[in-house]
Design a protein that fits this description.
It is found in: Membrane; Secreted. The protein is mainly beta. Helix content is about 5%, strand content about 30%.
Length: about 110
Amino acid sequence: SPWVGLRKINISYWGWDDMSPFTNTTLQWLPGEPNDSGFCAYLERAEVAGLKANPCTAKVDGLVCEKPVVSPNQNARPCKKPCSLRTTCSNCTSSGMECMWCSSTKRCVDS
């Protein structure tokens, strides 16, 4: 399942990676979701497509992100790579404070 850039910010608030609020209009949660099993939202493509909460360390099938409409003369900015997909300490910690490197597990995790 791909990660869609949506994460749990606090106990009752889900927001996009750019911290804008999730309004539950375009994408819908699957029945029984979000549950307390995770802080990241993944697109589930079973019988019915929808969002499912999973741990941010779950294996992902890529990512889905929003890109602004650009004219042919502009370049779209690249999607931010989630912490769980960063595989080295240097690429984990190089882009701000959202990720931290865990030496014992050799994994990049959300800070």
